[in-house]
Every structure is written in structure tokens, then in C-alpha cells.
Amino acid sequence: MDNSFANLTISSVSVNNIPEEIITSNLLKDKRPDIFIQIHPTKNVCLNIDKLTCGSSKIIWWLCPINPCGCHEYQTSIKRILIKKNSLCPYCTIHQPIPCEHSNSIFSDEIWIKEFAYDLNIGLDPKKIAKGSNDKIWWRCTKHNTCEMHIWEAAPNSRNGCPWCTNKKVCKCNSMMTVEGIPELFCQELNSDIDPYAISISSHKQLTWKCLDHKTCKEHIWEGYVSNVVGKGSRCPWCKGGSSKTCKCMSFMNIPKLFEEFDQTLNPDLDPWKISKGNNIDIWWRCSEHKTCNKHIWKGRVSRRTGPQSCGCPFCNGSHQKCDCISFMQNELLAKEFIQELNPDIDPWKISYGSDKVINWKCIDCSTIWKDNIYHRNSPSDPRTCPNCNNMRSESKGANLCRQYLDNNNINYQCETALDNYITNRRFDFKFIYNNRNFILEYDGEQHFNQCTWHKDEEDFLSKQEIDRIKNYFAILSGYIVIRISKKEYNSIVKYLDYFINYNFEEPLVCIDDTVKYEYIMLKNQLQNYSEDIEIKYLSM
């Protein structure tokens, strides 16, 4: 730059005397395009804005870029607008701005204009009141416009919403009594000097409360802060799980079973009515089912007896050693049919009536010996009895004729018995020994050969025939000679049984009285699922 202009002031130099190169290098549009675009597009008609420089003191019209609604237009010099860091827009200034209905007046805010109380602000135009105004005006809450309390006075620049809705002030419609369940908990009798409708939800005031679940109990009353009870859901300390507080209505003694099994003589220093259901204290119990038995006494936690998996007498449920009073021998019939000689290694008085142990029994009516577990024999709903006696009562005419033959020939037999190597619920009609050979005798009715009402469908019928083949397989595997009879006349049954039981057998096989009917039972490929490959031979007359 030429030093001849260095000491000249702006006031003493004419623009016309400044060289062109200096002016063009300091143009506002080049140096500060962000400011240049704020020049009002229509109100500077007599001015060549392209020639304006950054240091000019010329006052021109500007348009605010923050709220370009058309209202925010003002005059100031270029130099001043470049010096100020904050906006010079009189509508946007933080100090008493000029109101604009489009952006910074209360009229421009949808919520504020709804809450502006026209009837209480007579003579005031919301379009001419800026949001930054310090003048107090009246507001009416839109959420509770029918409530006379939700009206307040506040300046726009310090307004924070309805003081009742923000819980800064309390009225009937925002008190703690509006919260569900609180009116029932609050007891006016115990808070005689308190107006509950004047207490907020977040209040730290301490009140007296009464339990909803035990309204008649005088002990279920406690003191607590409103903020904890209403806001945090704090409730009766007597009912709270794990609480050390216990009253009579919360005691485990309210459970009939535990009331009956608590023994005061074994717990002389305890007051059971002060022990809650969830207490972990160990106390002594006496079984209500065996009160006269001194073995049915045990120590256990109260909480374990009242929980979802409550435990009872350990002697009755099998977790402790058995005692005489719960042995199956208490059942009169089972005691008579248990024969010690048939069960030499068993002490019956140490086996409970619910045991699944299989032992030998002897019928007191027909002297039949059979095996069955104790649980099924002692079942309260359907106890099992002698299979021979049952069979005599329910077996078919043909099976009765087979029984008659065995009785007439003085052959000792067992009815409805299973094999040790076979499923226990698959039983054979008759099992006997004759001429030192083991025999199984099965009588097959018409349902074994033709599908009928005994079967659900064809698949069920075929599965029943498969069971017959499997029963043959296991009987042969166990060394038995199987005789299958289908004849209905006694003379025919006698003829075939005489022939079969007196036959000179060299190995176990299956004897059948009708090769046509029993064709299904001789199918070999049906037994391919069994591991031991044995050849089943058949005999017929």
C-alpha cells in the first residue's frame, strides 16, 4: 500500500480520492459474503451495494437471517454490524426485543397463545408482547381449564409452565389423592390435622398410613414419607417380604396344617404368633398324621414349610429313615398276603406304603403267588389284588374253560403273570409246570384275528397282533413252551391241550390249534427289531 495514505483518517478522505485498487480489495461482498447477503434486497434502491466496503459508516437496511419472516428488518451501519458479535436485530435482542407476531411474540407460540388468558389480560395484544418481555401477564392451564386454581401470573421471559401441573403448587386435581390406591391408604382419623388435597405427590411430609390388605388389623399401621409411598410405591412394612415385623394375622399359625403340627412343648420359648410365614427360623414340628409316633418329629425352617415347594414330614415323604407306623404292614390285607418265607431278605416294617419295591405276595383266598410293587397294591384309588381272583371274575368263557381243564388235571398254575425279562404290564393268562417243562397258556378271543369294536382303527388292530408275536418271542427266549388256544368248545380245548402238554418236546416252541387263524402270528419279518435272532418253531395237530 502507498504510505502517503497511511496517516489519513476516514473523515478527511473522500471516497473519490481513494485509489480504485484499495476500494476493490476491501469490498463487503468479497471480504464478508455472510454479512453481504443480509443486506435488504428492496429497501436500498438508491444504493449500489456492490460498491460497499467493510469500513463504511453508511447506514443501510438489513434483513435478519435468524427469523426471515419479513418482519425482522432494521437499519444500522456496515461498520457497526461488523464490530458487534451478537445480532443487532431489534426483534432478536435479548434485552426487551421488539415483538414480532411470526417469531418472537407470544402469539407465535402455539402453546402460549392457548394459555394466554384474554379475559384477565384486558387491553393486551399477544402479537405485541415479546417472549423476552419482563412484564407479568395472566395464563390459564389448557389441561385443567375448568379448575379455578390453574391460573397464574408470570412474565414471558421467566415462564416455566403451569406451577400446579409441574407440582410446584398443589390443588385438588394434582394432589397425592389423585394417585390410584392412595385415598384407600390414607387414614383421616390418624391424620386429623392434615388436608390430603393440599399435599403434593413429591412431598417429604410424613403421614400415617393404613394397610389395604389388613384393614381390620390395628398393627398394620405405619408412618412414611409421601414421596416414598406415592412416588416409590413403599407399602406396609408388616406385609413386606423378609420383614422382621410380624403380627398375628401374618403368622404361619394361620396355615391350618402348620398350626396343627407346631408343638409348643418342643418349642417352649417361642411365641408362634410372632413368627411370620417367611421367617427362616428353625423350629420343631410333630407330624399331624402320626401324632402318637415319637419318630415323626423333626426340625425345619418356617419359610421352607410355607413356600411354593413346601416340605412336610421327612419320615412320611421318604427323605428320612422309615418307621413302623408308615410301613405297608399297617394295611391289614397286605400284612396277611405278605409271606416272609417268600421274601427272606426284606424287613416289611422298614418299607413305606408308597414304595415302588416289587415283592412276592400270596393270595389269602386262592393261594396264588405273584409279584407286584407295594405302591400299586396300596393305591388309595385303585389297589391291585390277586390277578388270579381278578381273572376268575373277569376272564372270558374260553379262558374259564382253560382254567377248568387245568383244575381238573390238578395242575398248579399262576394267572396274569409277567416274565422277568419282559415288560411287567404285559401279562400271560396262565403259567404252569407240567412234566418238568415250563408252559404258558394263552386263550385268544375273536378280537385277536379280526378287527372289531375292541380296536380304535386298523393300525391299533395290527399293533395288538404284533404284541402277540412279541409275547411269543420273549416266552421262547425264556425257555417256555407257548400254547395258544382259539377253540370255544370245551371238548376241543381238552383235545388240543391233552395233545400239547403230553408232546415230547425237544425245545421251546409255539403250539397253535388253528394254522389258518394263527397265520399272522407266524410272520417272521415282524421281529427284526429284536437283537437276539432266534428261530421260532410251531406245532399243530
TrEMBL record:
Domain Treble clef zinc finger: 39-93, 113-168, 185-241, 258-318, 334-391
Gene3D superfamilies in the cross-refs: VSR Endonuclease
InterPro entries: DUF4379
PANTHER family: BLR8090 PROTEIN, ZINC-RIBBON DOMAIN-CONTAINING PROTEIN-RELATED
Record-given protein name: Treble clef zinc finger domain-containing protein
Highest classification ranks of the organism: unclassified sequences, metagenomes, organismal metagenomes
